[in-house]
Amino acid sequence: MKIGIYGGTFNPPHLGHLAAAKTAIEVLGLDRLLLIPAAIPPHKVLPEGTPPPEHRLSMAEKMADALLRPKVVQVSTLELEREGKSYTSDTLEELHRQYPEAELWLLMGTDMFLTLHLWHDPDSILRLAGVCAFGRTEQDGEELFAPQRDFLCERYGAKVTTITLPGLVDISSTRLRKLLGQGEGREYLLPAVYGHILMNGLYGTHADLKHLDIPELRACSCSMVRQKRVAHIRGTEEEAVRLARRWGADQTLARRAGILHDCTKYLNLEEQLALCEKYGVALDELERSAVKLLHSKTGACIAKAAFGEPDEVYSAIFWHTTAKENMTTLEKILYVADYIEPNRDFEGVERLRSLAYQDLDKALLLGVETTIQEMEERKLPVHSRTFKARDWLRSHGVTIEEGTE
Ligand SMILES: Nc1ncnc2c1ncn2[C@@H]1O[C@H](COP(=O)(O)OP(=O)(O)OP(=O)(O)O)[C@@H](O)[C@H]1O
Ligand SMILES: O=C(O)c1ccc[n+]([C@@H]2O[C@H](COP(=O)([O-])O)[C@@H](O)[C@H]2O)c1
């Protein structure tokens, strides 16, 4: 097994780190890549304003998640849990104990590579792991790497490989922290990491969460969910805007509802129930045990309480899972957009898609009926509000006979 070890202060992790991780996995053919946030970097003092380690850990986890290879890329808390300075030699000794058969590769950028012989116990480091070095800027070429590579090979018998990053990003966390303090720098960050920074007011960002612009709102939403859900959320956002344009609803509200509709999707039942309690959401028996029914309610509460969304957005999010009788146009739009956004792929989706732009009520009824049928086939309980939605539409003359539209 080939294991890559990418240590860093990750204060914060940026697109330069991401590019290096992505390329190293491919070029080295890694079976696993461990991102290891340092507790106390041995060679530098953590600057003032450095967030507590749990934030650096959480941001590193978002970077790992963004690589969409959960079996390969993992974050290790080995150094955060160890007392004292985070010496790489100690980390490698520990990993060698854990994986005695594995081939270890230490990943590092130019700055670290050129000073490697000055690290604590370089003999152990270079005995236990190969070194994979990459340039941080376009200027970091072979003439910089070659002398150090020759020296490390000769002096320590080191195994060194240098790789070129196709997606090289010339940025350091130091410069990024400065930019963030001036309200800039988002282009160097993964949206999920940027969202985490905004939501926690890290690095001197003082964003007013109740007045975020669209990219900031998207970033916050991203930071609350797993990367694999982001495409669906983006698809729902754009579909909701198209439907709002078609049906004369407010496009900005549709967009914001789409962005936030799944923001609490990854909370567990206990967390969902605590939020319902906090915001006074009354629940019936089914809702109290069905976590899937709760994220629409808690998502609506967070949209309003944390992001200052108006009642129209609140109620669109609140009803986007069960639907209900007598829905507003925006409520219908979010429900249908969630169902038909471009990433959805199920039998019947094309019919629903075309219906959505011909007759919104018919599309809503078809969505509701499809859900009821699917839940019944899977022997899962259907929420009473969903039946009420269907019955209300039918009693108001909405029909969806096959082949009529
Ligand atoms: N833009 C980048 N491209 C490639 N590698 C990078 C880049 N930035 C940092 N690295 C490498 O990532 C590892 C971890 O770096 P670190 O977390 O300290 O980031 P940094 O940007 O160098 O931070 P700081 O500015 O706070 O020193 C190091 O090996 C470093 O060389
Ligand atoms: O062990 C050492 O002496 C040592 C000296 C310098 C750097 N390191 C490690 O190199 C990694 C990159 O460091 P940094 O500051 O660029 O985040 C990080 O994991 C550090 O702990 C380790």
From TrEMBL:
Enzyme Commission number(s) of this protein: 2.7.7.18
Record's keyword annotation contains Nucleotide-binding: yes
InterPro entries, sorted: Cyt_trans-like, HD/PDEase_dom, HD_domain, HDIG_dom, NadD/NMNAT, Rossmann-like_a/b/a_fold, YqeK
SMART domains, sorted: HDc (SM00471)
Domain HD/PDEase, first and last residues per copy: 225-352
BP-aspect Gene Ontology terms: NAD+ biosynthetic process
The family this protein is said to belong to: Belongs to the NadD family.
Protein's recorded name: Probable nicotinate-nucleotide adenylyltransferase
Gene symbol of the encoding locus: nadD
